[in-house]
């Protein structure tokens, strides 16, 4: 399946291991990714906190560029980018005058025909039982799936059916041998962009998430959002300092967990970039462990 690929800023910076793991697993699950050319930042929370037209123009330009490139479907792995592109497309399709103003601002034709997909939608289509049956290994751990805010809200725009208790990631993890645990923090906020300005708020919110996961016996937290990963992984020391509690539970992107079930190396999946040590490994279906040596890193 050929898809357009919009990495956004995070996947080329603080979350480049997410991009590495997506590109690493793509050929094994039948995905051919074509990056959107000359892409720009989607604006994330910064633009729409400053100027409404700008907050629409930035994602609209990305979508217009995808149309120019002939990309009918575009996967957007970053939850914030996905939310901004999907929300912008919805607003421009609903409001002709706003659409005209934005098209004038970006100075590019824009039809609004691109299908914007998040990473879970794409994995759900690709990771069929027939595909996973050929995986050489499994990911046999008790995990909790953390969706965060932006993959499921606003539900009407993102067409989220179970936005308080989503199941997509849980079902995908079951297919690679994991045991998803029921927990109450699936869609709670991690603090998102407050990570720089109000680290104390982020630390307290993440502390609640980590404590709940640990109490339920989870061996890993699985995410599909760069901001969620950064707050739960990179801000771990801040969380421990402010809460006064120690948390060792690692945080993996779902694409990294899939990669381990494919028998890929930690380096191929970027696991060495995590701040919290990832001591998990895939387990070969013939009861041999996939050799791994992932260690915590500060970069």
Tags for this model:
single chain, 4-stranded parallel β-sheet, 2 domains, 14 helices, alpha/beta, Rossmann fold, Glutathione S-transferase Yfyf (Class Pi), Chain A, domain 2, 299 residues, disordered C terminus, 10 strands
Quick description:
This protein has helices at 16-25, 44-50, 52-68, 79-94, 96-106, 119-126, 129-132, 155-158, 168-175, 199-215, 226-234, 236-243, 254-261, 266-269, and strands spanning 2-5, 32-35, 73-75, 115-117, 137-138, 142-146, 179-180, 220-223, 251-253, 283-284. The protein has 299 residues and is an alpha/beta fold. It has two domains: 2-119, Glutathione S-transferase Yfyf (Class Pi), Chain A, domain 2 (Up-down Bundle); 130-284, 3-Layer(aba) Sandwich (Rossmann fold).
């Amino acid at each position: 399946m050929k898809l357009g690929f919009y990495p956004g800023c995070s996947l080329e910076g603080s979350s480049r291991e997410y991009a590495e793991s997506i590109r690493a697993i793509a050929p094994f699950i039948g995905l051919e990714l074509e990056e959107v050319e000359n892409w720009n930042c989607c604006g994330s929370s910064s633009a729409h906190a400053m100027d409404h037209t700008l907050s629409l123009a930035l994602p609209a330009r990305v979508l217009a560029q995808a149309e120019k490139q002939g990309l009918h479907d575009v996967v957007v792995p970053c939850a914030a980018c996905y939310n901004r592109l999907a929300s912008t497309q919805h607003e421009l399709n609903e409001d002709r005058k706003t659409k005209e103003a934005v098209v004038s601002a970006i100075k590019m034709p824009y039809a609004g025909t691109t299908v914007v997909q998040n990473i879970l939608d794409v994995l759900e289509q690709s990771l069929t039982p027939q595909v996973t049956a050929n995986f050489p290994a499994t990911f046999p751990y008790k995990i909790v799936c953390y969706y965060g805010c932006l993959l499921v809200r606003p539900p009407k725009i993102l067409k989220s059916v179970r936005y308080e208790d989503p199941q997509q990631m849980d079902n995908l993890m079951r297919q690679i041998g994991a045991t998803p645990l029921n927990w109450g923090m699936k869609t709670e906020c991690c603090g998102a962009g407050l990570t720089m300005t109000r680290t104390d708020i982020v630390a307290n919110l993440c502390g609640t998430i980590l404590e709940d996961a640990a109490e339920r016996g989870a061996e890993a937290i699985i995410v599909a959002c760069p901001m969620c990963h950064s707050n739960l992984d990179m801000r771990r020391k801040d969380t421990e300092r402010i809460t006064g509690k120690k948390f060792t539970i690692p945080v993996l992107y779902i694409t990294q967990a899939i990669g381990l079930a494919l028998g890929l190396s930690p380096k191929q999946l970027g696991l060495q970039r995590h701040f919290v040590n990832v001591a998990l490994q895939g387990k070969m279906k013939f009861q041999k462990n996939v050799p791994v040596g992932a260690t915590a890193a500060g970069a």
